Queue: 2 jobs
Job 1
Amino acid sequence: MSLSIQEILKSKGITANPQTLPFLEARWEEVQALRGDLTNIPIDDADIGLRNIPGGDHVEQQTN
Amino acid sequence: MLNNKLIDLSALELAPLLETKSISPVELTKEVLQQAEQGQSKINAYMDIYQEDALQAAEKAEQEILNGQYRGLYHGIPMAIKDNIYVQDKITTMSSKIHKDFRPTYDATVVKKLQEAGVVLTGKLSMHEYASGVTNDNPHYGAVRNPWDLDKIPGGSSGGSGAAVAIGSSVASLGTDTAGSVRIPASACGIVGLKPTHGLVSKYGSFPLSWSLDHVGPMTKTVKDAAGLLDIIAGFDLLDPTSVNAPSTNYLSKVTGDVKDLVIGINEDYFFNQIDDDIHQLVKASIQHLVDQGAKVETVKIPSLQYAEWAELISFATEASAIHHTNLKNRPDDFGDDIRLFFELGALPSAVEYLQAQQVRRQLKSDFQKAFEKVDILISPTLPIAPTTIGDHFANLNGEQVDAVTNIIRLTGPANLTGIPALSLPCGFKGNLPIGLQIMGPAFGEAKILNAGLAIEQTNPLQGRKPNPFAQANS
């Protein structure tokens, strides 16, 4: 079962603007088309761009 | 329009006049404020003009200079900033209805730095609502108009900054850039806009649009003014978790315009694909100018660019939607229709899609890094199309009707995804509208791109022409 865009948004507490809903649906289809299947890019091995820095922001490695 | 030419001068031209007391900050500020007031009925650039505060700050600067305490290039220079950068106790609206009465309790780090440099703040400048758009056609405060043609958009989201600097109602400005919002209005309004390397300039105290893509950057009349302003605002800031502790550099001193042996990279597949023919020609002519001065050209491949538009949209829309999630649920009708739609769009992608977009970004960074092992800079058009008519969602691209917004951010977005520095500066005209060229460089390579920018600026691409909104009938 696939949910409509309106239902997906509703499940997140967001009421889609009925006046722009057709544009939102068209835009979402464009975004999906832009993504393609990502087959031409070796992202499986690529780390994500987020960092997990222990100790807080800007902590440099320190030696005792 | 004022006949006095002080408002036409750059910061670098004004600075020696101020330092030697040939003109006073008060005299200069009065002229800028007058231009700001007069410009409102034509271009609507300002959200708020600080008449009284600006004159007080100018008097203070004047006293300091008279006492021999000249602080440097921007001391006594009147400047307004985009209305998403916090000035303590001053209404900061983000050009939104929801934040119409918001008063920050602290200054943004960049505002503190401007004040330490002796800048005279003249007010806040209009923007696309929450910086989330490129037209500056604002449903709450009215459209900002392009001073070169009042029917056209000034670009956005820092459209007020672009328009104000173009007519001299602010000598320089600060904008923010998430997908091109400094460079797009710079291109559309015929000025210089610099998106620095991510982390070089603190974002503390600027209202976020998309944390991982946001930047604060200078918008100025000239390349050297941008270098001088970057010297003031760059620097590590513990208050910004994305700030990078990079070695300090004096950018202005490194901008000489010497491009001998500079290697220029050209990526035809993405950055010269689907470009307006006239714009294509202007940018290639500027590259030829650099070659005539001793630069070389190499073609480069950046394969992952085919996913750049998708990664930009997913990262941008989801992060923005997260920031505005509560208001999107509780008071959606208080957003303009266009940004409400965009924030709704940002609630749709899955976590997997967001994370894949971040993987694409890592690959893009790697591909750009490889390109910069071969070349010093990359050059492209800033925009593939000329500024569109206000209210028009489509643009004419070589006879084909194309979506305006998607195309406007297509060439600027990759520098936000990768965090590399990118500069836009004028390279000529299409009809009566200025056209911008983009120079990208390796991370923390601001000096390189500013230097190449100066070499192009020295070819006088604006041919001495200035916008005159006062001679145009209101639309």
Job 2
Amino acid sequence: MTISAVQVRGLVRTFTLKGVLNGIDLDIAPGEFVALLGRSGSGKSTLLRALAEIDHEAEGSGEIRLPERLSVIFQDARLLPWMRVLDNVLLGVPGREARVRGRSALAEVGLAGRERAWPHELSGGEQQRVALARALVREPKLLLADEPFGALDALTRIQMHALLRRLSDVHDPAVLLVTHDIDEAILLADRIVMLDDGRLAADLPVDLPASGIARRERIAELRALLHRLLGVEEAPADYHEDTTPPEPAALGRAI
Amino acid sequence: MNAYSDLRVEPITVQKPRSVPKQRLSPGKPARYGILLGPALLLLYWTVLSVTGWLDPRILPAPWTAITTAIELIREGRLQENLAISTWRAMTGLGFGVIVGVTLALLSGLSLLGGYVIDGLVQIKRGIPILALIPFMILWLGIGETMKITLIATAVFFPVYINTHNALRAIDLRHVELAETVRLTRWQFLRSVVVPGSLPGFLTGLRFGVTASWLALVVVEQLNATSGIGYMVTLARNYAQTDVMLVGLVLYALLGFGSDAIVKQLERGLLSWRKTLGR
């Protein structure tokens, strides 16, 4: 058995502000990109907050094993408005040489030269990129992201998808991305985990073919399945009439 | 000859370049010394009333009388001497008031026990007007400088404490969460989140505190003082020297106005990261 970056056993949260968890078992391999899907109130954010160890108000039990170095990205960029961009990136990272790393992290997210800007001088997408730089400069083994693109416009979101995918390939942390966007999950993740009512409802590998018709078909299959699991009607424009929705078992392990 | 040569060139009406649109809901860009307009108008009004003789000099002397009397007082050395002692009292009281206010606000804002012990007491004490304390202050501390400075410091303490305490309690929980996820130490958390986050509240308190210090000064200097602007005014009142009384009043106004301007300047420098309507 391979060593996990994240190991969760029997995680229960009975009282939280954001939803409950009824016994979660989850493993994430080092470098694996996992998307966590689920309806509102299914417990996605509760699980992420438990992993980030910021769910102080919660009551429950269970076992969580995490790497020492982990970073969190929130839905809002959560920059400190009284610190310049570079100081925000380096929040809590001591040392002179850190400034060099901070600069290169900003360059990686395309914000070289904006080190001395105030957060309010940046656009929403740029602020979120600063948050990404702040996460990466800590060289995390696990990156937790709670709907990080939810507040961005469609175009910026597409750019951010590409950026996150590229940077997670370069830095290779395990990633747990909470999202309610099915296409975002399929596009970015190696594996999609679905929560429903505080339980794991599905665990599907994405394994997209590199290109061509096979890739499009696999995306359509996954999308249809995920829509069905989430209990929502799919938009007809995305749907091939001749594609019968495949059996869940044919695609992956449906719990 | 080319294919385009027979095309007629239509004259294009060039639109007048539009100036940058004004921000409709904002009062606009502030003029540099705009704040002086109100005082200048008052001075003008006063001058006109004095020149036309509508204002009896026994009720309120003319503005230039204030200036000539001030020059005279400076020549005698009385003005600068009294001004120095008054400023020293106000500043010392302000200093102690700010130190105690901030310290107690930090204790009660950042620890639960501190909040239970300190905040309740302060809220009760707040119900008692400062001036009502004067008899006890005199009983405990006498009528010397200690009593005067203690009273000024007490007056400064309340606005500083209350505003700083509120600002500390209003620190954004999301920033606290962030501090936890980036594993800030308690000290780093204080330095990078708590202090800058509560600075706007503290500075508001400081502005009120500065005003309170002058206010308390006026009161304590009329109590058995033998020096200071208040003493000068009290003495002048006994001899019905309205011009000296007026100089005292103008001095208080200038001191209050000047010190408020200093704090505002401080605010502008320290809070340059803020984007607000008023700047």
